[in-house]
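Listing S7. Sequence submitted for prediction.
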Amino acid sequence: MITVIVEGPGEQAVIPILARRSLAEPVRIKCVSASGKANIIRRVRGFEDTIRRLHALGEQRFIVLMDGDTTFEPYQSLAQEYLDMPRRAAIIASELGVRVVACWARIETESWLIAGLTPGSTHCTLRRLPSIPANTEHTPPDPKKWLKIQLSGDYTARIQQCLAESVDVELARQRNASFTTFCTHL
């Protein structure tokens, strides 16, 4: 089993579906919500303590998944976060003798969902979609807002799950390198 530490309930609902659909061989995925990115990256009681608790329960493989849209203390920039989080992951992995990988969804995990959509899609309460960006790691700049605008209803966990079940995961890999990177760690 792979335990993925995520920012919130949206990722908690979507990641197991995307992972299942992206892999040829089934892998059990468990997502643990940290209730915000700040709770993942902080130095005291951050992801390291979460991994220690889960390891005590028998977990052995971890992915720490964060959005790449903003950062919090102790980091002053995303560049600083991108450099330090893998170092921290390596330290806790060595301490416990487990596998820990730090991974980012560039801009947000919603960019992975957008990457797998096709023009004209109307499933999951989507309005008829306009063209889809060729590289969703950069466009749209606010993927969550873009999705909310494209929906005829509210953006809920149910809609996120519907989109995760409906998108073309191979197209998502082509349009979003961070999704491909995440899949290689599964």
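Caption to Listing S7: primary sequence and predicted structure tokens for the chain studied. The longest strand covers residues 61-67. The mean pLDDT is 94.
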